[in-house]
């Protein structure tokens, strides 16, 4: 059995990846996570007695500790999910995005390089460093432009996207210069179980269930491509096993929707699953002040991973959304925990001025 060092494994995608890796026996897992506001060990509760899963609370920027973990556990791969990931937070306060996404990734690469360079040649050949990135590095598209390919030039527009672009460039440089066996994946917007409700889909589901306003930025015409998180995790595992070293792979859900469509779909499903006697959920939709520099459209051309590795998303947006809504309705203990404390401060900070304006 292989061993993966997963960073950011207490966050949304990382935790889904770890759960899937342990359930399907993909690998033993060492999880390194700083446990910022976005990290939640509750998500991984089912692994508490799993002897092939270990958790360490640490920063990816802690060079000596990461070197120690690598030497101690001799992983076959590092899978880097750790990041500050929310665009709106990067607009309010970019500092942590630079620190973790740029400096932290640099330190993680340094620690990994030092470990990898000391491996015996055969282990060196099999080792992989997989960096999880985003389609936002490619910038924005008009409604009619062709989707982003792996050749699209980087033109990041938000502090978040710029910090992820920087980290992608560092990964590329470590492969080019030191021959570190890297892989980079650029995916579209993920959704599914265990997502922190600062992002559009879980925020809308939970607000709607509570009869609260559903904030839609601007006119709601901005388009995103929606990728079900388990499809994304399967793609990452496939890229780790079969991806060409030094290459990047776009991963998308083939489900472009504008934000208003997404919110209206959630409302229509909740009208059936949780009907309200006095109102339709869509009456809660509230158009609010737009995000500064809001990218109009992201769209992913994922033909490379389909053609070369045989991956393809298994979930349609309708089936994935239904699973996601059912999950949030059935996991109220998890939801109540993440919504306590600091979450409320963020909601006040981000929405108070938008709603009143
Ligand atoms: P998330 O915000 O839910 O989780 C991030 C995790 O990283 C948290 O557990 C947090 O505690 C941890 N972390 C933050 N800083 C750290 C540090 N310095 N050291 C160690 N751990 C740290 O993010 P997510 O949605 O799971 O995203 C995972 C990755 O996928 C990120 O790199 C993100 O840029 C990328 N991505 C996400 C999406 C999406 O739709 N969620 C889309 C494209 C790309
Ligand atoms: P988000 O989930 O924050 O992901 P990203 O910014 O990485 O795409 O936002 C998805 C889209 O939804 C984006 O166009 C912004 C919009 N949005 C809203 O309209 N209202 C909201 O409350 C949030 C959080 C996002």
- Fraction of residues in H or I helices: 40-55%
Describe the main β-sheet briefly.
Answer: 7 strands, parallel
Strand content: 15-25%
The molecules bound to the chains, other than polymers, are: nicotinamide-adenine-dinucleotide, thymidine-5'-diphosphate
Strand order of the largest sheet: 3-2-1-4-5-6-10
- Find the structural class using helix and strand composition: alpha/beta
DSSP helix count? 13
Average pLDDT works out at: 97
Distance between the termini: 56 Å
Order of H and E elements = EHEEHEHHHEHEEHEEHEEHEHHHH
CATH-derived topology of the domain at 3-196 and 226-257 and 298-317 = Rossmann fold
Q: Can you tell me the CATH class of the domain at 3-196 and 226-257 and 298-317?
A: Alpha Beta
CATH superfamily grouping of the domain at 3-196 and 226-257 and 298-317: NAD(P)-binding Rossmann-like Domain
Name the CATH architecture of the domain at 3-196 and 226-257 and 298-317.
3-Layer(aba) Sandwich
Radius of gyration: 20 Å
Number of strands: 12
Give the low-pLDDT segments: none
Oligomer: single chain
Shape: globular
How would you describe this structure to a colleague?
With 357 residues, the protein is α/β, with parallel strands linked by helices. It has a domain at 3-196 and 226-257 and 298-317: NAD(P)-binding Rossmann-like Domain (Rossmann fold). It is built from 13 helices and twelve strands. The chain has helices spanning 12-23, 63-73, 87-92, 95-117, 121-126, 159-178, 200-209, 229-242, 259-273, 303-309, 317-330, 332-338, 342-356, and strands at 2-7, 27-33, 53-57, 77-80, 128-134, 182-187, 189-191, 214-217, 223-228, 248-251, 256-258, 285-288. The chain has a seven-stranded parallel sheet with strand order 3-2-1-4-5-6-10, with helices on both faces. A three-stranded mixed sheet has the order 7-9-11. Strands 8-12 form a two-stranded parallel sheet. The N and C termini lie far apart (56 Å). The model has no long low-confidence stretch (mean pLDDT 97). The protein binds nicotinamide-adenine-dinucleotide (NAD) and thymidine-5'-diphosphate (TYD). Thymidine-5'-diphosphate binds next to helix 7 and strand 8.
